[in-house]
Design goal:
Oligomer: single chain
CATH class: Mainly Beta
Order of helices and strands: EHEEEEEEE
Distance between the termini: 54 Å
Strand content: 35-45%
Number of strands: 8
Shape: elongated
Number of helices: 1
CATH architecture: Sandwich
Amino acid sequence: MDYIKIRIDNDIEQLPSKKEKAFENVFRPRPTSPMFSSAACTWNPQMDMYETPGEIIILCEIAGVDKNNLEVEISSKAVKIKGRREQLKHMEKATYRLAEIQYGEFERVLFLPILIDPEQVTSSYLNGFLRINCAKQKHGKVRKIPISDG
């Protein structure tokens, strides 16, 4: 059985603010043709997030991305998905009439609507879709704290 790398990390909270990301997105170059794309090109895959009574489900559309080029980082508040789609070989003696598929690195951070248990996360990759199931934290946990002398 193959596994997708999942890293549990509390440093996701140190990510850039929404304003910083918006500013960065305005000035990020977007290729209009595969001829002008580079390894540094960034694209944003489409994602859906669902909530059920027991979990948060994230579905990421990343057709053409090799599973070995995917990485998922989890904290109790956010999920970061990053990866790379390799560019296909150009056809010799061909003139592009339409070139919309984006290649290169991508990174998406989704802030979750409720705290999850990072130890109870599973993922799968099938037919170009990455699915991440995140179990919600149990709110009813009670822990007794011992009281020491002095």
